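User:
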Amino acid sequence: MQSPVVAPSSVFATPPTEGSGVTRAAEVVPTWVPSWAIDLVAVVVVLVGAWLLSRGLVTLFGRRIARHFRRPSLTRTFLSGIRAGVSVLALLVILRIFGLKLGDIALSVTVFSAVVGVVLAPIVGSVISGIFLLADQPYEIGDMVELADTNRRGFVEDITLRYTKIFTLDNTFLVIPNGAIRDRDVVNYSAEDPRTRQSIDIVVTYEGDLDTARDRFERAARSVDGVIGGGPDIRVGAARYPAGPTCYINEFGDHGITLTLRFWIKEPYKLLATRSRVQTAIWEALEDIDVEIAYPHSHLVFDETSGELPVRQERHSERRADTESMRPDTNRESPADSSSD
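Assistant: Predicted structure:
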């Protein structure tokens, strides 16, 4: 009686483990290797493959996307979307390895979304606002912006689907959710044209020479480094404005005449410093001209319509006598002293 012949492969053959997404290869995996180790190796292989695939796609399409959109924010968003898509694909494969089917995944995601929907609502709102920000293009990475409600200026460092990061001039970071920043007034100094116009109000007295004052103020602003001295008119919308400094008579006030000096700055990065230099030049220009800075003051004028103010004048001797008569006489004897005598 012949003994049954056992195939060599049967030594290593094991039935597939229920609940595992990876079936052992009978010719490769020995029987003593546990199933969880095979799953762990498969997960590591999927993660490494996803990382290599993500880097390869970013390297392949990164420059093309940057040349197509020409906006750093959109380029970063699309590259982040590629990485996120590869990560989601890797996660689905890993879940499949552990035996979770696509239908179970969809059901789990639905239940999870229903449970934490209230918690994720602000994040979803920020993501939607981020999509509108990227579509509307109110500012771009590298632009200098100002939050009108706080008067804080800075440079846009990053724009994501959830938040906008601003690097302030005080060397600090502001991370603002997109849902909140869309409800605020944001001034963009460098979106289209970095040239910015500034205005300074100067109140001078009525006795000064206005023509000389206006001319000297314009010359003072023109002499400051960073101020546009002249050239073609600057177009703002449908209007055009002089490029050089101009000084206008703004208002005849109670204490003086308000002159408004307008000038253009080449770059908005040092607004306060340039404005301070212009005001210093104006102050120095007042030294040799017949113009004075007005300040609040009042003149009292009395005429025949002002009524009468009674004034009494007394001599010094009469006033002294009246004063002494009002004092008590300490030398006068009292009635008790006179009766004792």
